[in-house]
Amino acid sequence: MGLIRLDRFLTEFGIGSRTLVKDLIRKKKISVNGNIVSLPEAKVDPEVDQIAVNGEFITYQKFEYYMLNKPQGVVSAVSDRFDKTVVELITESSRKGLIPIGRLDKDTEGLMLITNDKALEHLLLSPKKHVDKTYYARIDGCVTREDAALFEAGMKIDDTIVVKPASLMILTQAEESEILLTIQEGKFHQVKKMFEAVGKPVKFLKRISLGPLTLDETLSAGEYRSLNADEIAKLMEYKNFGLQEM
Ligand code: URA
Predict the structure, then answer these.
(1) CATH of the domain spanning 132-210
(2) Beta carbons of 218 and 147 less than 8 angstroms apart
(3) Ligand 1 centroid, distance to 137 Cα (angstroms)
């Protein structure tokens, strides 16, 4: 992070508004490396300096990673004029700069990663990285092996868009079918359009994995938790993400 103004850091960390933070500084409630600091514009390095608010040290972590089980009715955005957003569901954090990685439709549920790690967002969304995304879906119609063969060959979903080969597993096959579909792209409404192309509409869609991450089944729709150390390590190991320079 390097050097940053003390008031800006404390605001971005989520201590409070700029006005509140300035007030705390003036009231001598903030110390840096054991010394009270009274200038809001003082420069600090949060990765090196020990900063305390009202005597309590701040544990600064550069990045936050949350796994959310996105419920239906919420949009994949930071803010929205009309709808509640996935970022607004992360109520534990007042950190600025949290973003959802990728998009799920308003009526799609499931695994959503929310972070302030922009480099990771870039890697996970890069078409060149072929990140696997697996969806569970209930389909209106009997999904067949022929559909699976079409999906595996790569198919046209609009007049012009051709999607890459995708792997389809049929779980149940009847008037309504249950499937798992793994795709490596994130084209707009891709899963719905793939099934529309074979005349079988998606009735329910839920993402259950993204790259090396699998949705924690103990999270009900709308619940979230921080990624654990093991999951963060898996993300960094995945396709050498942790070693890539941005
Ligand atoms: N494909 C879709 O059609 N919708 C989603 O939300 C995700 C993938």
Answers:
(1) 3.30.70.1560
(2) no
(3) 10
Asked if 133 and 182 touch (Cβ cutoff 8 Å), the reply is yes
- CB distance 43 to 7 below 8 Å: no
Are 41 and 49 in contact, with CB atoms under 8 Å apart? no
Torsions phi, psi for 109 (to 5 deg): -105, 175
Nearest-atom number in ligand 1 for the CA of 193 is: 3
pLDDT tens-digit readout, 55-82 = 999 988 889 999 999 999 999 999 999 9
Segment 28-56, tens digit of pLDDT: 999 999 999 999 999 999 989 999 999 99
Q: Is the CB of 105 under 6 A from ligand 1?
A: yes
Please check whether residue 146 is in contact with residue 153, taking contact to mean a CB–CB distance below 8 angstroms.
no
Check if 65-125+221-245 and 132-210 are the same fold.
Answer: yes
Whether the pLDDT of residue 246 is over 60: the answer is no
pTM, two decimals, is 0.85
For residue 230, indicate whether it is catalytic: no
Closest residue CA from atom 7 of ligand 1: 104
For atom 2 of ligand 1, which residue has the closest CA? 189
CATH code of the domain made up of 65-125+221-245:
3.30.70.580
Nearest CA to ligand 1 atom 4: 189
Cα–Cα distance measured from residue 6 to residue 75, given in angstroms and rounded to the nearest whole number: 34
Planar angle of CA 142, 131, 230, nearest 5 degrees: 110
Could you state, in order of their start, the residue ranges of all structural domains in the chain?
4-57, 65-125+221-245, 132-210
